[in-house]
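Researcher: Next sequence.
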Amino acid sequence: MKMNAFMHTTALLRSKSRANARMVLTNRAQCGKIFNVSQHPSPTLTAERRAAIARIVAQNGTARVAELIDRFDVHPSTIRRDLKTLEERGKIRRVHGGAVATDHSATDSTSTSTNTPKDRIGRAAAEMIADSETVFLGPGQLTLAVAHSLAAHSRLTIVTNSLEVAHWVAVHTPHTLIVTGGQAEGEDLGLVGQLTRSAFSSLRADHAILELGGISAVGGLTDDSLPQAEIARMLLEIGSQVIVLVPARRVGRVAAAYIGPASDADVVVTAREAPSPFLWDLSESGIRVILA
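Model: Next structure:
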């Protein structure tokens, strides 16, 4: 009888001890974040997370480990395993502190939108560039699209006064990159000022590719930015071929800052949606016009 009572008391103590242990763990959990560090996570959740990471890298071009940890609320080692697996599958390329897109993943992410006017203009301009040439790319979304299409070329030297273009080329291509100095201006982060002008005075290129705010057979080459127009005037002298990119809606438009006559452009590349009367005017002026 005494033995039964002793065993009953011991069981109660053990039960209370386990309850207290659960209470301690619960209280600790309320004071901080609990990371799942299981070596055998749920396959479904892991696959979904890795697919999401691959999409993020493909769409943004890069992803940082710290951002992925916060987004998915997992332990750093989990994200590192995810990135290692994705790299082995060819989905991403690991770099210090995160990952960058591969050419394959970037192509996958944009395969449904590569027929936009911007992408068509970028491809058309890139087709005029041969391997091993030196190309100047100015700031703008159209010149950034050219940079995307030049990723498939080999041994190019790219000179740019655009921080956005420079970052993309540095991360996604093996090309030689020369970035001018200067002060960043506008949403496209174009570099302007004395440092930029000094750099161009000692540079030459096989092609100078510029995105402008307007072109007209009468009004000439124009832009909305006075500093960028000044840079553009210098670039007309350093490139053996000047390729001007203009959005369709800006063909026939005259912007505030005059750069030069339309005939200073060797080639004008725009989208096929551009208004026909203005295109005919440019063509009759002896300017080569490419519709993408």
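Model: Residues 2-30 form the longest helix (29 residues). Confidence is low (pLDDT under 50) at residues 5-44.
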